Amino acid sequence: MSDPTLHIGLVVGPYVGRIDPDAAQAYALATNDPNPAYFEGDAVPPVYTVALILPALHEGIRLGSPPDAIPGVRGGVHGEHDVFFHQRVRQGMALRWTSETYCATQTGAGTMVTQRLVLTDEHDAPVVEHLWSSLYLGGKIDAQLGPPLRDHTFPDDARRRPLGSHAFEVTGDQSFRYAGASTDHAPMHVDDEAARRGGSP
């Protein structure tokens, strides 16, 4: 079997945008995040920048890691997602970002392909970095392509010393509200049959 045609290292962008206060507050409401700092100050929900980068992510996948380039794929799902915060994100902030097809890794369930999206400020200093991995179920590649992902395994020692727990309510309409606030209208998020066709149970 030969390696699929994945364009590791391909960069799309740059894209430009601004943190709109109304959009950030709508995102907080759609994710049931009641923090008053989003409405009384200039704070932004931690992963709100997902709503900005989705078009870049999709274009990066289309050009750099299309599922049909990987043999055996029978569906896909958003897999791992690491987010690194380099500075505080504020309402009104002007940002630029790119999407890079970063790496591909073989797992027991299929091929995981990661896009690296870095948002920078007006001085080109990093603000937020997303490592967004898509798991292509059943996909097969011969070897690791690109650099390995950082190890983010939760330490066993920390598991033995829990600090507490918190329960979050996920309401029945949340995926629909989230679609509007994030611009992520993927059918598998709001339609059971579409999710099954995509390989989810």
Model description:
The structure is a single chain. The protein has 201 residues and is an alpha+beta fold. 26% of the residues lie in helices and 27% in strands. It has helices spanning 21-30, 37-40, 49-64, 156-159, 174-182, 187-190, 192-197, and strands spanning 11-18, 75-85, 94-106, 110-120, 126-137. It has a five-stranded antiparallel beta sheet with strand order 1-3-4-5-2, with helices on one face. A hairpin with a 3-residue loop joins strand 3 and strand 4 (110-120). The chain is globular. The chain starts with 10 loop residues before the first strand and ends with a helix.
In short:
With 201 residues, the chain is α+β, with helices and mostly antiparallel strands. It has 7 helices and 5 strands; from the N terminus they run E-H-H-H-E-E-E-E-H-H-H-H.
Q: How many DSSP-defined strands?
A: 5
Order of helices and strands: EHHHEEEEHHHH
How many helices in DSSP terms? 7
| Straight-line distance between termini | 29 Å
Strand order of the largest sheet: 1-3-4-5-2
Poorly predicted tracts of residues: none
Taking all Cα atoms into account, the compactness measure Rg is: 18 Å
The helical percent reads 25-40%
